[in-house]
Amino acid sequence: MRNKAFTFINIAGLTFGLTCCLVLVLYLQNELSFDKFHTKADRIARVIMEYKIGSDGNKGNFTSTKVFPAFKRQFPEVESGVRISASSKLVRYGDKVFNEANFLFTDSTFFNVFDFNLSGTTANDALKAPKMLVLSRSSAERYFGKENPIGKTLLIGSSQTPFLVSGVTDDCPANSQIQYSMVASISTFGELQETTYTDANYTTYLLLNNANAFTGLQSKINTFMQSENKTSDFKVNFELEHFNKVHLYSMYDAFVPNSNIFYIYIIMGTALLILLIACFTYINLSTARSADRAKEVGIRKVAGAFRSQLFVQFISESLLVTVIAMIVSVLLLLLVLPAFNQLAATNLTYTSIFTPTLLGISIAFVLVIGIVAGSYPAFILAKFQPVMVLKGSFKNTASGTILRKGLLVFQFSISVFLIIATLVIRSQMGLIQDKKLGFNRENIVVLDIDQKLVEKMPFVKNELKTIPAVKEVSFAYESPVKIRGGYNMSGTDLSKSMAVTANPIDENYVSVMGLNIIAGSNLTQQNIAAATNQDYTKNYYHFILNESAAKALGWNPQEAIGKKMYLDESRPGEVKAVVKDFHFASLHSSIKPLVLFPGGWSSNLFVKIDGKNTAATLASLKEKWTTLAPHRPYSFHFLDDDYQNMYESETRIGKVFNVFALLAIVLACLGLFGLSAYAAKQRIKEIGVRKVLGASVAQINLLLSAGFLKLVAIAFLIACPIAWFIMNKWLAQFSYRVSINWWIFGAAGLASLLIAFVTVSFQSIKAAIANPVKSLRMD
C-alpha cells in the first residue's frame, strides 16, 4: 500500500500475462482435444490415396469404394471401417425445405467406429437398411420442432426420395473433424462396386484391431499394392494417417479445415514468452527495490529473524501478489472470451474456464510463478548483512544490476521478435490477398444448383441476365479457387498418360472467370452439345489446357491447338485452346497441369455482377430464384469467400499474433516504465545538481534514457537472427511467398527503440522538470 505504483505494475503485469496465457491455454486445449472423445480414436486410420502415372502423381484424402472391403478381407489387422461421401442435399418435410450442406452417406458401421451420442436406436440398427437417416439434434428441431422425429419420413434430393428417420444424435462437437447435419445409409445406392482402386470419391476410415498395428499394416499395404499395380501403368498406393493426428498434422482437410501443429508451437511459445515477460517485470522491480527494503531486513535480523523466516516472508508476498493477479485474470478472461472467439474463429465456452484441467493449470501457475518469480528477490533480501545495512553502506549489488539488464534485454528481445513475426505474417497474407491469380474472383456470386437446373440451363441463364446488374452467367462442377478433380490425360499414345486435374465447364466459364486465352479459341455451344450426347460413346470433347498441361504433353501453346488427346481414355477429343496458367489451388502448392472440358453436370452456378449495388442485386437474384428453382432454397456466397476460406488458419494465426504481439510490447514497456521510474528516483539528487549547474530537460532525458536504449538495441540484435530463422521456416510452407526484406527488421528496430524512448522519457522528463531545491533537500 505504501508503494502503490510498483504494486500496480506488478499486479497489472502478472494479470495481463496470466490472462493471455489462460486464453491461449484454452485455445490449445481445444485444438489438442480434436477427436479425443472417440474411444477408439487411437485405432482409427484415415486412408490417403497416392496415384502416379510414370513420374507424375498426386495425393488426396479420397479413395474408391473398393479400399475398405478389399483391405478388410486381405489384412487381419483391419477390424472394421467406414466409407463416407459428403455432399449438400435438398431436404423437405411438408412446406419446410432446406439445403443441408453437411449431408453424409456412409456405411452401417459408422456409429460403431465413431462415438457420436446416438438415441432412438442402436449403433447396429441406425443405418442397417437402405434409405435410413440419422439426424443431428439441431436438424431434427429444424424440421420437427419438439416432435419426436423417430419413424418420420424426410424427402431427400431433387428426386424427393423418402428416407426414414431412425435415430438422432447430439450435434457434432466443435472439436470433431467429422461434421454432419444428417447421416444416411450408403446402401441406398445399392451394392457398391469394387471394380477399381482409382475412382476417388469417398473418404475411407479403417478401424484397426490394435493401436500398434499402423506401421506393420502400412508395410503390408505397400507390398500388396505393388502386386496389384503390376498390370497397369497407373500406379496406386495408400497411406494410413492416425485419425487423432489429422487435425494438426495432415496436409489434407477433413470435413472441417485443419489446423497446423506449427501454429500450435507458435501459440504455445507466444503464451510462454508473454508469461516470462510478466515474471521478469516482477523480478526486475523486486530486485531494483531491494535497497529500499534493506533497513527493514536489517531491523528484523537484529530482532532475531532467521534467514529462512525472511525468505518465507518474501515468498509469501510474491504468492499473495500472484493470487491477486490470478483472481483478476479469471475475471478478465470472462470478459475477453467472446472477443477472442470472434478473433480466432473458435467456440470456447465459459464452462471450459472452470474445468478441473484449467483450474489445475491456474493453481500451478500461481505456485510456479509465485515461487520462481519471488525466489531470487527473496534470496537477495534475506542474505543482507544487518551491520552494513544499518550503517547505511548497503548498495544494490553488481550482480543484481546485471540481472535486471539481462532480463530487460530478454523482454525486449521477445517483443522485437513478435514485431518482426507479425510484419512477416502480414506481408505474406498481403501477398495472398493481392496475388494475381490469373482469374477474376471479384463480384462473382456462387449459387448451389442440381441436375434439374442444369437441364434447363439456357433458360436459367437468360432469365438471370434480365437483371440489369448481371453481366454474365456460367456453371461448372468446381470453382477456379479450388479444383480437385483427379483424372489422367494422354496424347494419341494412350500408353503414355499422366495424372492431371480437370474440371467440367460450360462455354461461359472462361469469360466469367476472366481466364486469359493465349492460343486457340473459347468453347462454343456446339462444342458443349458434341460432348453431352445421351449416348456417351458418341461424345467428342474440345479441351482447354493450361500452359502446364500443354507443356507436360510436349507442346507449346500454338502447337497444342488441334492436337488429338484423351482424358481418362473414355473421353477422346482435341485441344481447342490454351489458357495462361492460373492458381486453381492454394498458394501452398505450385501450379499443376489442368484440363477444362465441356460437361453436362454441375454443382455451382457463377453469376458475374457489376458490384455497384450489391444488396439490390442479391435481392433481385433471390426474386428470380424463387421462380426458376422453387424446389431449392435461395443460398449464395461470393467466390472471394471461397478463396479467403482456404487461408483460414493463416488468417486466424495472424490476428492472434497481432493482438498478443501488442500485449507483449505493452508488458515489456510496463516493466521498463517501472524500472525507469525507480532509476529516476535513485538519481534524483544527481538530477537536481545537474539542473542547478544548467543542464536542460532534453540533456537530462537523454542521460536517463541512453542506458535503457542501449539495452533495447542489444535486444534487437539478438532477436533478428532468431526471427529470421523461424519465419523462414513458416514461409517454407508456401510455394509462393514473400522475401523477408531488410525494411521489416528496420521497422521492428525503429519501433522498439521509439516505444522504449517514449516509455522512459515519461519518467525522465517528470524527474527533469521537478524543482531541484526539493530534490536536493530529500533524504
Question: Biggest sheet: strands side by side, in what order?
Answer: 3-4-9-6-8-7
Oligomer: single chain
Mean pLDDT: 83
Secondary-structure content class: alpha+beta
Count all strands and give the number. 22
Query: Low-confidence spans: pLDDT under 50, at least 5 residues?
Result: none
> How much strand?
15-25%
What radius of gyration results from the CA coordinates? 33 Å
Distance between the termini: 21 Å
Biggest beta sheet summary: 6 strands, mixed, barrel
Share of residues in helices: 40-55%
Domain module count: 3
Shape: elongated
- Total helical elements: 25
List the helices and strands and how they pair.
Layout: H1 4-32, E1 44-53, E2 56-60, H2 67-74, E3 78-93, E4 96-106, H3 110-113, E5 118-119, E6 132-136, H4 137-144, E7 153-156, E8 161-169, E9 182-185, E10 203-208, H5 214-228, E11 234-242, H6 246-249, H7 261-288, H8 294-302, H9 307-344, H10 356-382, H11 386-390, H12 398-434, E12 444-448, H13 451-454, H14 457-464, E13 470-476, E14 486-490, E15 497-505, H15 509-513, E16 517-520, H16 525-530, E17 541-546, H17 547-552, H18 557-560, E18 564-567, E19 571-579, E20 594-598, E21 604-609, H19 614-628, E22 636-638, H20 639-646, H21 648-682, H22 684-692, H23 697-731, H24 742-768, H25 772-777
Helix pairs in contact: 1-7, 1-9, 1-21, 7-10, 7-12, 7-21, 9-10, 12-21, 12-23, 12-24, 21-24, 23-24
